[in-house]
Structure formats: C-alpha cells, structure tokens
Amino acid sequence: MTTPDIAWPKKRREMHSHHFESTVWNDFRFRDGDIIISTYAKSGTTWTQQIVGQLIFNGAENVPVNELSPWLDLRVPPAEVKLATMDAQTHRRFLKTHLPVDALVYSPKARYIYIGRDGRDVLWSMYNHHANANDAFYEALNETPGLVGEKLDRVTTDVRTYFNDWVARDGYPFWSLWENVSSWWAIRHLPNIHFMHFDMMKRDMEGEIRRLARFLDIEVDETRWPAIVEHCTFDYMKKHADKSAPLGGLLWEGGASTFINKGTNGRWRDVLSAEECANYEALAREKLGAECAHWLMTGEGLDVVRAA
Fold first, then answer.
1. 277 Cβ partners below 8 Å, 6+ apart?
2. What residues form the membrane-spanning segments (predicted)?
3. Helix ranges restricted to H, 169-224
4. Which domains does the chain have, with CATH numbers?
C-alpha cells in the first residue's frame, strides 16, 4: 500500500529491556501484504493472531500461530533465528510487536492491526501472566546474553498492589501503556492501519472478524466460515492452547492453559476502590486525551476508523 503523499512514521529510537530488542526491525525485510499485529500486551494479541491465522489458512485445524507468528522484538530467541524463520515462510506472513510506533520500522507495504483494552483489564491479565511464570521464563529473559537494564523480578505482591505500582511507575515492571497507546493513536488516520478493541471483539466477534478480513483483502470462503468462527472462540483456543502459547506454554506453571487464562474483563471491579478507579481514569485522560482515553476504556468513539 504505497501512497507517495503520506508522511509515513519514522523510527526514532531503540528500546532495550528484559523483554525488548527493537534493533531486530532494522533487518526485517518487508513483503507486500505483511500483517503486523500490535498491542501493549495482554490486550487480545494472541486472540488476534488466531483470527488472522484462521483467515489466512481458511479455517484449518490446529494452526500453530505460536510458531508461525513470532513476537519479533522479543529478546529471545536471537534475532537471526526469528528473521530466518520469517524469510523462509511462503504464506502471507503475520507477526506481532509490543513496541510504540517510533521504536519500530513502519512500512507502507504492510497492514497493521492495533488492539486496545482497558488498562485495568490488561493489568489483571498481566498479573496472571507474570505471577505464574516459571524458572524457565526468568532464565530466558534474565540470563540470555545481551540484557540491557534491570532483570525482571518475580511477583511478590497481591494484584491490587501490583496494579497501583504499575500505574504509579508508568508500566513497571514492564513498559508504559500511555506511550504505547498514544503512539499508535496518533497514526490512526493512515490507510494501512486498522483499530480493534478487546471489548468489541467480545461483543461481536463475527462482525469484527469480517471487518478485519475486508481490511486485509481476504475473501472469506463462506463454506469455511463456521470453522473460522469456532476456531477463534475462547473455548477452542483454551482446548488447543499449545498451538497459541509461546513454546507451547513451557514458560508458565500449569502450561499453555495458564497462558490462555480467562479472556474476561472487569475482574478489577471487586478489588479496586472507587478512588483508585477514578485516579486511573483521570490519569488516562491526562496522558492520552479524552477521546483516546474513552476509546481505550470502552472501545467506543473510533467511528471514522471503524467504518473501514
């Protein structure tokens, strides 16, 4: 998708952490039609990878999205391994990133999907992800050579304290939600980006899949539509979690079914106080602006982009 009059985003910096190694994008060779799935993390990334995989492979059983669709800017495995894997693929490629826009290479050749989710729901899912990590998880992130910055510590607090630390310390111990969301929101007008929201996917999954298929220029085979829909349900993904969880779930206690956890929203409602929620919402409006903050919390207010 090339349009000469558009000012495409430029890479401005590198990001390094116990998770990130953004330099991998400097050597990634884009192809026409590449699909880049982007989120803050725990916002519906794996679900969207499953949807895209089902659209590409026409409702096939047991599509191993965890193998086919890597997190390119994760520190492990080494960049050369991931790049070689992507170079060898002959089908339409789809991969994921958790970087803000200015830390990756943005290509007019690719189609980008950005998925949002209320930060409180993100954090509850993140807590499960982090608290259930096993020794292999910490060894991979903290002991692999090339670590820049602090190691990732184990969870030692309850979820409420974890949430308040995450808010007060701008995404600690991971990265900034506000920076990630605002960077993608700022380019929502570009013709090769499509916005989705976890809440909307929950409310109308079939409608969201069809909208996404149109954006990706994938013609849905109606004879396979029931299979595509079934394979994108939470129950199916939970049952086949070894096909979507990284390394088949080997990095979490309880395996892949721990990674594909609940897929629900609102678990924070019975834990956070009214004051804590108000403080979070006020900070979201301050950091993102009222329109973006409203979209992030509800999935509403992006009518121009959603009309695509």
1. 120, 268
2. none
3. 177-185, 198-203, 205-215
4. 22-306 (3.40.50.300)
